[in-house]
Each structure stands twice: as C-alpha cells, then as structure tokens.
Amino acid sequence: MELIMLVFVFVLAIFLGVELISKVPSQLHTPLMSGSNAISGITIVGALVAAGAVDNSLLATALGVGALVLATINVVGGYVVTDRMLRMFKRKGKK
Questions:
Q1: In terms of pTM, does the model score above 0.70?
Q2: What is the per-residue burial (b if ≥16 Cβ within 10 Å, else e) of 38-60?
C-alpha cells in the first residue's frame, strides 16, 4: 500500500511539473533555473546521505548513487545554461 502511494505521488509530481514548466514565460527562465540549481544542491546532499548510510542495502546504495549522478548533471547543466543566457544580455565588447 505504501509503495502504491509513493508511485502515485511520483506520477502526480511529474504531471504537475510538466504543466507548471510549460506555462513559464521565457523571461522567467533564468531566475527559475537558479532556484532549480539550489534545489538540486539540496538533492545532492540527500543523495550523499542515502548513498553513504552504513546499514543500506545494495539497492538503496545504488539508488543513492544514481540520484547523486543525476542531480550533479542537473546542477552543472543548469549553471551552463544560466551562464549562456546571461552572456546573451551583455553588450558587445565587454566581458
């Protein structure tokens, strides 16, 4: 029963996320990306705790490592995209 509830919440979060992201105007993309990077930083800390717990099963450790890898990719990609977007607003000739 608990697993069914967790899957339900996960699927609901996916649908809600897609709906919210599709409604965001392009002017708000950079500030929202910065917020997303902060949330992914928190996810990295949680993934480190999950992957490094002493009494974990192999599955829990693997899921923690997977979460760590995906959150790290999200943070790095977010900073790259944010930096690229901010460079678009700089004047020519200035660094």
A1: no
A2: eebeebbeebeebbeeeeeeeee
Find tokens 């809600």 and name the residue: 16
What is the mean pLDDT for each group of 10 consecutive residues in the chain (95 residues)?
88 88 75 74 85 82 87 85 79 66
pLDDT score at 8: 93
Cα separation of 2 and 71, whole Å? 25
Residue 50: name the closest of 71, 36, 35 by CA.
71
Residue 95 to residue 91: CA distance in whole angstroms: 8
User: Distance (Å, rounded) from C-alpha 40 to C-alpha 25?
Assistant: 22
Instruction: Give the chain's length.
Output: 95
Say which residue the tokens 């993934």 belong to.
Answer: 47
Q: With the CA atoms of 46, 17, 78 and 7 taken in that order, what torsion angle do they form, in degrees rounded to the nearest 10?
A: 30
